[in-house]
Amino acid sequence: MHLGTSRDAAVRTYEGRVLPRQGEDVDDQGLAFDITTMLNRRRVLSVLGLGAAGLALAACGEGDTAGSSTSSSTTSSSSALSEIPDETAGPYPGDGSNGVNVLTQSGVVRSDITSSFGSSTTTAAGIPMTLTLSIVDMVEDDSPMEGAAVYVWHCDRDGNYSLYSNGITDENYLRGVQSADADGKVTFTSIFPACYSGRWPHIHFEVYPSLDDITDATNAIATSQVALPEEVCDTVYATTGYEQSITNLAGVTLASDNVFSDDSGASQLATVTGDTTSGYQVSLTVGVDTSTTPTAGAAPAGGGGGGGGTGGTPPSGAPGGMPTGMPADRPTSA
Length: 334
Hints:
Elements: E1 4-5, E2 12-14, E3 17-18, H1 31-48, H2 51-60, E4 128-137, E5 143-144, E6 149-153, E7 175-179, E8 185-191, E9 202-208, E10 222-227, H3 230-237, H4 243-250, E11 271-275, E12 279-288
Parallel strand pairs: 4-12
Antiparallel strand pairs: 1-2, 2-3, 4-5, 4-8, 6-7, 6-9, 9-10, 11-12
C-alpha cells in the first residue's frame, strides 16, 4: 500500500487525499473514504473499458496492491464530513468586530468579489479563482443550509487586505456575501490569494443564519478558514506577480501554521482543479453543528504573521497599516 505525504511528513495521504484517521491503516478510514476510493476506481476502469468485472477484481485485490495517483492540478480534501473548526477571524475581518463594517454597505452581497464596490471599482490582479462552499447542517442529517449567508474575504496577490493595509484602506475588493442556494452552495469569483510571511495560504469565511443577520458579527454561527493545497500554490506562485509568495511558502507548513497546525487542516483543505491559464476551481464542504456555540475564532498558540505588508511581509506597528486606535481585542493571527 503506497501512502503519500505532504510537505510535512506527519500528514498521511492516499491517492491525493488526506487520511481522515491519521493513525489507522488505509483500510480503516471509514465508509465515506472507502466509497470515494471505489468511485475513483470505477471512473478509471470505465476509461480502460474494464467495466464492472474489472471493478470487482480491483476491490478483491485491494489488500494486496494499491497505486497512488496525484495530479498536479487536482488535490482533494478528506471526504469524511466533520464540523468545520472555529478559527480566528484575524485582525482584518471587516465585519465590524475590528473597525470598519463592510457588511452594512450596499453592494456587499455579490458573487464576483474581484473588484471594489461603492466609490471605487479597482480590480485586484491575480490568477482567476472560483470558490464554492457547500454549507450543511450536521444536526439535520447533513442537509443543505439553504438561505444561510456566507461572508468571504482574503488577501490579494501582494498579501494585503483591503480596508486595512497601507494604500488600500479605501478599497473593499476580495470581500463579499452570498446566500446559499437550495443545495447549500455559495460561489464567489475572485483571484488566488498570496502566501504572506508566517501563514499558510488561506481564505477566511463566516457563516450566518441569513442575510438579515450579517450586520452583526456576533450572529455568526461558524468562523473558519479554507486551506489551499501545496502543489497548486507552488504552481500559482511560479507566475508573474506572486514571486514573494514562493519565499513565504517555503517558510511555513500546514503542521507549523498557527491556525491549521492542530490537525494540518484535515477538514479545511480544499479540493482544487484547474490551471493558471483558465483559473482554478476551489471547493469545500462546510459542516456546521448548529447545536453548539461557536467560539468565533480561538487561534492556537504559536507564531504567525499579521500579513498585509509589502510583498506579504507583516509591517511594523499597527497590523497591515491599520490606523492606530482601532480595537485589537481579537486574536492577531490573520
